[in-house]
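We read letters as residues; the fold follows as tokens. Both lines appear below.
***
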Amino acid sequence: MIKKLLVLVLLSMSVNVMAANDQVPGDRIITEIRTYKTYALVYISPGFENTQGCTHTSNSRLMIDMAGGAKKEIYTMAMAAAMAGKNIGLGISGCAGTGGYPSIYRLDVAF
């Protein structure tokens, strides 16, 4: 019983390490946005250090998964920032989609 509990605790700790959030500084610009049926890919420059362990290793592409949460609001803000040429910062957490892109959970726009 104690071994099972110890294994469970260790597994939960390793999941938390993999799911740690990354912060991308507010000096990035959006160079391209591609929309699909259930998600959007946001291309930024300069790139970022992707420590999320996603299968897609690009350092300039991020995903907005449109399911749930405030994702449509994040997408709308990304479009506005791109059209206005404003710098952005963002938070990424985990991987999304079949391509395993880093998932955006927060977008900061400087005005």
Notes: Helices lie at 2-18, 71-84.
